[in-house]
């Protein structure tokens, strides 16, 4: 009887894995990705101005992301940050693909094989694509990005207020220092 139950449970594991992986590529409830997203304008280097703390960036300063077009039509992602404790640069390479249409700012990104997480562009400077507000699959992940290592305080305040209105813990935002050259 136990072996039969085990075999039945094993049959459901692939389905459960799919549900978990799809869930990680979703957006937090009440958070909508931007429409009329223009990937070609989003490509290039972005600097992390502020973020909510999480283990894979903990302790890093001077964080940047480079987005490029991949040969398969996806987006190449290279994240870099300076680890002050160890005195060295850390880098992670990944890939991203649109979840829906390429005009909707919702991508799934992977740095670890078949496992994808959500990358939701909540807001972007429509004129120059000079700043962006981005989240992950839950309200535990939030980034404020800019094309430069600093951001106008008024724009920063607007983005923080927008994130707060969406239910993010903006009091916990970490301001990212940019005092090392990585290029």
Automatic annotation (TrEMBL):
Gene3D superfamilies linked: 2.40.128.20
Lipid tethering residues (N-palmitoyl cysteine): 24
Keywords in alphabetical order: Cell outer membrane, Lipid-binding, Lipoprotein, Membrane, Palmitate, Signal
Pfam families, sorted: Lipocalin_2 (PF08212)
Main location: membrane
Covalent lipid adducts (S-diacylglycerol cysteine), residues: 24
Molecular function in Gene Ontology: lipid binding
Membrane topology, as annotated: Lipid-anchor
Subcellular location: Cell outer membrane; Membrane
Matching PROSITE patterns: LIPOCALIN (PS00213), PROKAR_LIPOPROTEIN (PS51257)
Domain (Lipocalin/cytosolic fatty-acid binding) ranges: 38-177
Gene Ontology CC: cell outer membrane
Domain of life, source organism: Bacteria
Keyword hit for Signal: yes
GO biological process, one term: response to stress
InterPro entries the record matches: Calycin, Lipocalin_ApoD, Lipocalin_bac, Lipocalin_Blc-like_dom, Lipocalin_CS, Lipocln_cytosolic_FA-bd_dom
Subunit structure comment from the entry: Homodimer.
UniProt-recorded name of the protein: Outer membrane lipoprotein Blc
Annotated source species: Anaerobaca lacustris
């Amino acid at each position: 009887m136990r072996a039969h139950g085990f075999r039945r449970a094993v049959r459901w594991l692939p389905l459960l894995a799919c549900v978990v992986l799809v869930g990680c590529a979703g957006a937090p409830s009440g958070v909508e990705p931007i429409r009329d997203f223009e990937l070609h304008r989003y490509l290039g280097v972005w600097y992390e101005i502020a973020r909510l703390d999480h283990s894979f960036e903990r302790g890093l300063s001077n964080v940047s992301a480079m987005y490029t077009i991949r040969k398969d039509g996806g987006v190449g992602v290279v994240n870099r940050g300076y680890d002050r404790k160890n005195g060295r640069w850390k880098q992670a390479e990944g890939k991203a693909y649109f979840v829906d249409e390429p005009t909707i700012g919702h991508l799934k990104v992977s740095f670890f094989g078949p496992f994808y997480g959500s990358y939701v562009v909540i807001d972007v400077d429509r004129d120059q694509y000079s700043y962006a507000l981005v989240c992950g699959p839950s309200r535990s992940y939030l980034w404020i990005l800019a094309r430069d290592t600093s951001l106008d305080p008024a724009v920063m305040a607007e983005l923080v207020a927008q994130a707060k209105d969406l239910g993010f813990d903006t009091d916990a935002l970490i301001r990212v220092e940019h005092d090392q050259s990585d290029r």
